[in-house]
Every structure is written in C-alpha cells, then in structure tokens.
Amino acid sequence: MSHQHFSKVIFVVFMLGVLILNSAGWAVAAAPSLSSTATQTPTVLSTPRAEDDAEPRAWLDGAIDISQFSPKGSLVIHFNTPMDGNSSAAPVLSWPSLDGSSSWNTSRTTLTFSPANALDNSTAYTFFLDTALRAANGKTLDHPAEWQVFTRSAPEVVRVVPPAGGLDRRYGEIKITFDQEMDTGLDGGIISIEPVIPIQLKWKTSRILQIKLEEPFEFDKRYRLTLHSGLSAAKGSSLENDYVWLYQQLPVQARLESIGDDKVRIAFNYSLSRYRTGRDFSISPPLEGEWIWESDRQIVFKSPTPIPASQLYSVSYPTLVDVNGFEVAAPPVQFSGIPPINLLADKDFQKNKYNIQAYEYDGKVSYSTVEDLDAIQLEFLVPVDHASAEKAFSLTPSVPGTIQWAKGKQNRDILVYKLDQFLQRNTEYTIQLNSTLRDVQGQPVIALPFTKIVSVYDYAGDIPSFGALGHNIQIVDALGPRRLQYAPANEQAVFAAYRFDLIDFVELYPQYRSRSSMDEPEIPIPAGNRPAATWSNSSKREVGEENFIHETILPSNLGSGVYVVNMSIGETLYDQMFVVITTNTLVVKDNGRKLTAWVTDINGKAVEKAEIRVYNTQGEKVRAGQSDENGLYTVSMPEGDTAMLVSARVRERGQPDDVTIAGLNFATNAGDEGWWYSDFSSWHSDNSSLVHDDPAADLPEGRPLLAYIY
What confidence score (pLDDT) does residue 497 get? Predict the structure, then answer.
C-alpha cells in the first residue's frame, strides 16, 4: 500500500472514530476540519537558512494567495530544516484527492506539488502533509500543517459588441470583454464562426478580445459565433463553458409614408451616416422641396405645396453609407399624396355609429370591428365617378354584399357596402380602392391603391392566450400551487414546457419579452430540445361575483429552472411564455448608480452564496457576484448601462439549478423611490408593486419585507 493510500485510510478511520464516540455520548474535542484553515506560520518568499537539528516546521510560499489560487498552479512548501525525501512517496495529500507529482529542491527544504490536471474553478481544496514525512534528523512534525486554498473563479464574458441578434448595421469587428485579465496568447481555435468567414484575432487590451472580420456578414444570413471553453485567464483559471452568439445581418429596408399633405418620410431599418450619405435624394418626376434628416434612420421630404394623390413619384438614393462606414443598398420606394378618401370609423369607444373602431398607437391607426358588422362606408373628399368607384372597390377575403350611395357632410359622396353575411372571427379584412378610380371629369384620383385593414375581434374566445400586456414571463413558486393563468378557447389547449439554460434565456428574452399576438415571431425552440413536460389540464376559479379566472397547473415533476411554455391547439401554436420555477425570491433595488439584490427562500430565510448576475437592456452581463450571509449583493452599475434583469442561481449537487429572476426598467425606472419584486410588473414608481417607506434605507434586517398587492 502506498503512503498516500495509507494516509487516506488513517484519516478515514480517525473520522469514523470521532463519529462513533460522538454517537455513544462521549465528549470528544473537535478534530481539525478539512473545511477550515489551520493556523499558519508567517510566509516568506524565499527559504531562510536551514537549521540541521531544528524541530521540523512547514509553511506555504509567500507568493501563494490561498484565497485566489491558480487552478493551474503548484503548491510550494518551505521547511526550516532539511527533510528526508525518502520517508514518504507522496508527501503532499489533498482533499478532494488529486493526482500529481512532488519534487524537492537540492537542499530538501522546498517541496513543490504539481497537480496532474488543472483544478476546478471556484472550488476549495485542502492540502496536508503525509504523517510519515520526516526530517533528515529523524524528527517528525509535531503539528502536521494543513492548508485550505480556494481556486480562482473562472473568467466570464461581461459584454460582446455588437450584441447577438439581428444586426441593423454592418460590422468589421466583434469585441468580447472579460471580467478579468486574460492570458493574451493567441490560439486560432478559441473562436469559430459558422458559416466560415476569414477572421483575425487580436487582444486590444488584456480584457478585450478583438475579432476582425475580413469581410462583413452577408445580408439575411445567420451566423454562429462560438468562444470555446479552455481560454485561460492571466492568473490561471480557464473558461468553463462555450459561449455562443447567433447573428443575422438584416436585409436593408426602406418604408415610405405620408405624414401630411406636403410631407413624406422615408424610414430605414439601418442607422446611416448622415454626413457621408448626404441629402442628394432625387424624385421623379421632379417635385420641388427639400430633404431634411430627422435622425440617422429617417429623412423627410417637405414640399412647399400639397403633394397630389393622383401622381406617382419615385425616389432615387445617393450612395447610402451606414454609421460604421459600409455602403448598403435599400429597395426602391414610391409615393403619392394622401388619398382624398376616408374609412368612416368611430374614434370614441363609447360610440358605435359605424361599428368600426379606429385607435391610434405609436403614430399608427388600426381598425377593428365585430363579426356582425352591417356595412363598410367610404367617404370621398372630391366628387368621383360612381361607376369607377364601384369597379375599383374590393374586400378581401370576399364577403357577398351590395353597393349603395349616400351623402355625408358638405354633400360628400359615401360608398356604402352592405354586407349580406357575418364576417369571420379572428380574420383580417382588406378594404381597397385601386388606382382605376376616376373623378367626375374622368381624371385619376389616386396613383396608388387606397388600402385599409380591419380586424374582426373574437369575443367568443377562439384564441387561447397568456395575455397581451406585461413582459411575457411568470415566476412560479415551486412549492406553491404552480398555477399559470390564461384566456381559454372553446377547445382545450395543450401545454409543453421546454427547459433552457440561463445563458440561452438571457439571449432570447430581450428579443421576445413583448410577444403579444400570433403575428409576432415565435420564440425559437432548438430542434434537439424535447419537452420536459406536456399536459392539458385546465380549471376555472371564482374571484368575485360572476368573475372567473382560468388556470392550468404546472406538473409536479417539472423541476426548478427556466422554461418556455408553448400553448397549442392541434397543430397551431397560439402563444408562448417564459416561466421560471423556483424555491427562492429575489428583491432588487436600483437607483441607477448602485444596485442591491436580496435573495431569500420562499419563507424569507436569507440565501447565502447565490450566484447573482446583472444584465443590461441589450442582454449583456455587466456585473456578477455572490450573495453574502444576509442574502445581499450590492454593486455599482457601469456608467451608461441600465439594468434590465437580475438573476440569482443556487446550485446544489445532484439537483437542477434553482434560478429566480427580477426585472427592472421595462417601462419606468425605480429611481430612489421603490423596490421591485420578482414579478416583472411594469408599475409606475408611485404605484409600485412593492414600495419602501424610507427609500434611502437598507433592506430590513432579520425579517422578510411583506407587501400587499391589489
């Protein structure tokens, strides 16, 4: 049996003896614990003069920082007297056990232990000397030394520029920023891009890795950038996991809209350099006026006279240059003046004169109606030829009906299309007059089709939904009722939960946090991600007189974690929502300069050593750390960054990660006025879901903060 194995056996037998004596009621002095650090003698950087006849004594080299030990480092131990190198084949032992090699200097006063493999990041290791080890004078160590060292945390990426997702400008480089100094040796294998494009790597600083793209991404193509694990920090720790970012170079788009009788605006989806692009836009046929940049994405043409609706104009661009200096090409656009036609609709929801509701949101007017709409009415601001108007009119999808004519204010003509059938629920109808419309003199009235889209509301509940408001996420107590509220349809919906890693969630959430209708893009589920659970239960609960809410219960075997829950009927996916199942709670205060997170379990007990991460509105991790013994983590925010969400992850061996999340700054900023609870509600700061009496005070000490939310 080797000395190393023999020492392990002695240690185990000793610990078993302690346990047996304790269980028998004997008072036993506490044995040295492997989780505590023994008292150490002063450390020095070099070995003092050895004393041949001295009592042997050992200490760590003074260059070793036991609180930030390099995972690739060696343990150097000094002795005050020459040691007998043959007295132990394995003079250094460890817990957890490590393979490695030991070597002595020529004077046998310095022992170096080099682990065979890199140590784990962020882990405690206890090293101790073999009890068989003796000095050259035959003496043994009266108190064999023991040292507990903590390996450095793994380097992490705190920012990538540009952020992952759709790119609305072209880039010649990508920069990855780490949270600590890195080993700046270059290995081309640490980065890969698929599809492959030629790149050059350069360390801009010891924390910023620059990826020079020899050619920019192609339009409308998806790229996968991978930073591979194993990249080393300057102090020895290494990247534990791959980082993956997905990019897509968006196609250049241009949208032209009339914003007045004498103005049109071109809106680009790319930010353009106004200086390098200039204002040499041209219009054909020529139209007098001037071009004015409103922003890097919008330019307005203003005419001194109203723009005629009967004339079609085309716009030619100068060379378009984006803000990064790359030339881009936009699709052509055409325009005419505002058509002299109105779709008659009610702007006041209290009135139902026309049974079509018009509502404005973000500068856009939308129309909605009900299935039993009686008629569609179009008002003409100029006299028109009735026959040409009837021929130009269309309704898609087609609904049988008849055309009648009426007179409105100022004796204006009104085309009335009387419907013979009900409209279909959950359907959009396009009302159109094409350019064949003529006035009473036979002249064209419009150069482009007049088009309005009317949506038919579903009051009967044919579309199941998690709701259109809020930020599309729900935090669920793993030990509670596990309810998800939703609006049901006539048929029972089927639910499927897909588990995501925290890093994948953070990439997805900024893009899909406002999903409010089926028309919006689906949250992508990777092909290999199978449902963690599928279920179809539903219940109705009364919450007041004749008021009910509908719920589905998450399966009890769906463990803690971050999920995307799909809601489907048949083959149709109707809605999706992010769901976080957790046994912990997270309260966050952010005043724009300092952020404090408080992690507790569901009963208010502080959770220590929870991994806290702070993400900005781009989904980039900007701060990371651990909660203290009070469950608190406080950190200053980088200048110019706004926290979007904070996560707290608790890891236990053999258990899935328990993650809870709190959201900030979606619609309002808490400032110094409020506490935001982990429910992702966007409350105004004077109507917050959780308000503290003294905004400047710290979190309450020793008890949970209780709030009633109505």
Answer: 95
Which residues lie closer than 8 Å to 267 by C-beta, 6 or more apart? Answer: 254, 255, 256, 257, 297, 298
- What is the CATH number that goes with domain 3-150? 2.60.40.3710
Please answer whether residues 118 and 72 qualify as being in contact, where contact means their C-beta atoms are separated by less than 8 angstroms. yes
Distances from the Cα of 351 to the Cα of 146, 361, 365, angstroms? 83, 19, 18
CATH number of 583-687: 2.60.40
Asked if 595 and 623 touch (Cβ cutoff 8 Å), the reply is: yes
For residue 290, the cross-strand partners are 302
**pLDDT recorded at residue 65:** 81
Residue type, 343: L
Angstrom distance (rounded) from CA 281 to CA 698: 58
Going by the DSSP 8-state scheme, the letter that residue 188 receives in this structure is: G
Structure tokens at 6: 């023999």
> CA-to-CA distance for 17 and 35, rounded, in angstroms?
19
Tokens of 709: 């939310």
Q: Which two tokens stand for residue 625?
A: 């750390």
SS3 of 572-584: EEEEEEEEEEECE
- Claim: this prediction has a pTM higher than 0.90: no
State both tokens at 385.
Answer: 């030829």
Residue 285 preceded by cis peptide, ω within 30: yes
Tokens 């900024």, residue located: 510
Taken as a whole, the chain contains a residue count of 710
Task: Give the separation between CA 450 and CA 340, rounded to whole angstroms.
Answer: 9
Looking at residue 272, its pLDDT comes to: 94
Place of tokens 């969630």: 505
Name 24's Cβ contacts closer than 8 Å, sequence gap at least 6: none
Terminal-residue alpha carbon distance, the chain: 70
Spell out the residues 6+ positions from residue 382 whose beta carbon is closer than 8 angstroms to its own. Answer: 340, 439, 445
Cβ neighbors of 620 (< 8 A, separation 6 or more) are: 158, 159, 160, 163
The token duo for 129 is: 């000397």
Q: Which helix (H) or strand (E) holds 23?
A: helix 3-23
Q: Domain 254-335 classified CATH 2.60.40.1220?
A: yes
**CB-based contact 180:204 (threshold 8 Å):** no
Positive or negative CA dihedral for 672, 678, 682, 683? negative
Q: Alpha helices of 357-501 — where are they, by DSSP H? A: 386-392
Cα separation, 403 vs 383, in Å, equals 17
Burial readout 693-704 (b: 16 or more C-beta within 10 A, e: otherwise): eeeeeebeeeeb
Cβ–Cβ contacts within 10 Å for residue 530, how many? 11
Question: CA 571 to CA 566: how far, in whole Å?
Answer: 12
What fold characterizes domain 157-249? Immunoglobulin-like (2.60.40)
Q: Where in the chain is the domain with CATH 2.60.40.1220?
A: 254-335, 341-456
**Residue in the structure block whose two tokens are 């170096």:** 112
Contact of 253 with 331, CB cutoff 8 Å: yes
Cα–Cα distance, 260 to 257 (Å, whole number): 9
Q: How far apart are CA 613 and CA 586, in angstroms?
A: 12
State the fold for domain 341-456: Immunoglobulin-like (2.60.40)
3-state secondary structure of 15: helix
List average pLDDT for each run of 10 residues in the chain, which is 710 residues long: 40 36 32 32 46 87 83 89 92 91 94 89 85 91 83 81 87 91 85 93 93 92 90 83 87 92 94 94 95 95 96 96 92 95 87 86 83 93 96 96 94 95 89 96 95 78 72 87 86 91 83 63 83 90 77 90 92 89 90 86 89 83 87 83 86 81 55 36 33 41 42
Please provide residue 589's backbone torsions phi and psi, each rounded to the nearest 5 degrees. Answer: -120, 130
Distance of alpha carbon 497 from alpha carbon 512, whole angstroms:
16
Written as six digits, the tokens of 550 are: 């509908």
